[in-house]
């Protein structure tokens, strides 16, 4: 065996949890991603999804994807720069730019490759990139790919952000990158304060609205819209894999920034363009956001109901202000165990352990969709109380 096999053969952590019967990953679903999914011949309530609008099995979106596949085929066989640009890619870019309130947008094949491809093109040697220490992995990778000086501040600590800004050369580009809704903890970035600091230190702000679109702002325009700070945010990115019921991502900004990225973001230029089906699905979902505001209202009704119920039952849920509800466990083994117990009771939730959180902050992530019912939430919370008590996480 080679050196690589020798080294990787020592990686036994997954097997350790498999042997204990609590390995929680890659569980197979053989139905649509809805509030109820089929797994191994039984129904499981889905509280581990990012489909906040509950649109992944919407008939209109399915039909749009089928029609696009019939017209354009199953793939584009090339990058946006060369043979891979369809009229529907451009249409979606125009609609997204208008939706989030920016001049122009670019659509990528995944949200991950937006952050990975865009961030390193915005800052170079002598510049600075400043991130919240809970930013998404794709932002971390984008940051690592840049040649700028990399700075981090403690989660949502605005004094700590200001201290980092004070370290920077005044004439260098200072790019602040944050998630608008933190994907595991469900709390919001303090965008009004970030904008104040941006102005004070002449910085640039990039906001990841992956979990904000659909959920916050007018007709789901996002957290920037919710706080009324869109014009002061330089770049807004989003994904299609959550509220938009598809896959793909975009970045929106003013004309000059987009013109630069269109010709320099490597995952835009060198990655094959998004499929016709995914693109048409995202366009249709975006229209539905605007035509059916009741989806967003339902999401908030059920979210507020669940937040209240979890609090009353004594769960530790941190500072969440969104449909992402972290149920803190603060122990990796117990996080896996409670995920498994809940699954056996018919409730799908996601374990969150390092590097997705700090070691002392392990949690299970309970996420809501606009289509969840009160009965489904009651059922899940009852089961979770039982499981958390069984493991003495809840008294
Ligand atoms: N940003 C954030 C905050 C995310 O949570 C995710 C996905 N979980 C991404 C970016 C990447 O998006 P996608 O999965 O659509 O590629």
Automatic annotation (TrEMBL):
Keyword match Transferase: yes
Pfam families in UniProt: Aminotran_1_2
CDD domains: KBL_like (cd06454)
Residue span, Aminotransferase class I/classII large domain: 43-384
The protein's annotated pathway: Lipid metabolism
Entry keyword set: Acyltransferase, Pyridoxal phosphate, Transferase
Cofactor needs: pyridoxal 5'-phosphate
GO molecular function: 8-amino-7-oxononanoate synthase activity; pyridoxal phosphate binding
Enzyme Commission (EC) number: 2.3.1.47
Family: Belongs to the class-II pyridoxal-phosphate-dependent aminotransferase family.
NCBIfam families: SerpalmtaseCFB
Protein name (Swiss-Prot/TrEMBL): 8-amino-7-oxononanoate synthase
Organism: Phocaeicola salanitronis (strain DSM 18170 / JCM 13657 / CCUG 60908 / BL78) (Bacteroides salanitronis)
